[in-house]
Amino acid sequence: NAFFVFRPESTRTIETFRTAFPTTPWVFLYRRPVEAMLSQGDDPAFSLKLSPMGKAFVKKGGYDREEIRTKDLYAIQLATFCLSALRNFKDADGLGLAVKYSIDLGDDFVDTIFPKHFHTPVGRGGKRRILKVFKENGYREDGLSPGPFKDDKDEDVDTPKSVKDAVNHFLRKSYQLLEDSGYNVDSCRTFRPSGVVLRCHGIIKEKTD
């Protein structure tokens, strides 16, 4: 099996990839809004030029383009990624899955995502190696260098006000829609009391005690 990782901007063209590979499962990995903002702010390749989707977002929201600041542009771009993913989840008939960046990410991949979504079982040795990679190759707080894996933190007093304002004004709603959607891997951890197999937007998982 081959796995491909795309830059965040490619989220806007998921439909093109789905057309080229109509039976291929895919995941959208997302982070808490503030962490995503700070991470993208450290990426020199992240474009602040509004895409057509970003321009449509601004127009639909009735925002004044002249009053939009740099941090707002980051938030708007990230919001369009979330909205594009949501739209494609609905059209992908179970092939798309939302995966939240968390301390349990490694376990999510080896226990659920690889075997149940990508239909690629992982043996004990493979699981050990994958979890080792997740443990040792997260991102440090500088957002640039690999280091011990850490869970995303909530907003705190050190978060710049301009970031918080941009998140709350432009990004929070689309992020919440994504997190609350039935396409999120977290939604697939709830099982029927009877213990029967539950299908959750493409993931089939059996109840375990």
Structure description:
- The chain is mainly alpha-helical and 209 residues long.
- 45% of the residues lie in helices and 10% in strands.
- The protein has seven helices and six strands; from the N terminus they run αβαααβααββαββ.
- The strands form three sheets. Strands 1-2 form a two-stranded parallel ribbon. A two-stranded antiparallel sheet has the order 3-4. Strands 5-6 form a two-stranded antiparallel sheet.
- The longest helix has 22 residues, at 70-91.
- It starts with 13 loop residues before the first helix and ends with a strand.
- The relative contact order is 0.17.
Bulk shape: globular
Query: Approximately how much helix is present in the residues?
Result: 40-55%
Number of helices: 7
Order of adjacent strands in the largest pleated sheet: 1-2
Query: What is the mean pLDDT?
Result: 78
What's the count of strands?
6
Spans of 5+ residues with little confidence (pLDDT < 50)?
140-144, 189-209
Keywords:
single chain; two-stranded parallel sheet; 209 residues; two-stranded antiparallel sheet; 7 helices
How are the elements arranged and paired?
Layout: H1 14-20, E1 26-30, H2 33-41, H3 52-61, H4 70-91, E2 96-100, H5 105-117, H6 124-136, E3 138-139, E4 146-147, H7 161-180, E5 198-200, E6 203-205
Parallel strand pairs: 1-2
Antiparallel strand pairs: 3-4, 5-6
Helix pairs in contact: 2-4, 2-7, 3-4, 4-7, 5-6
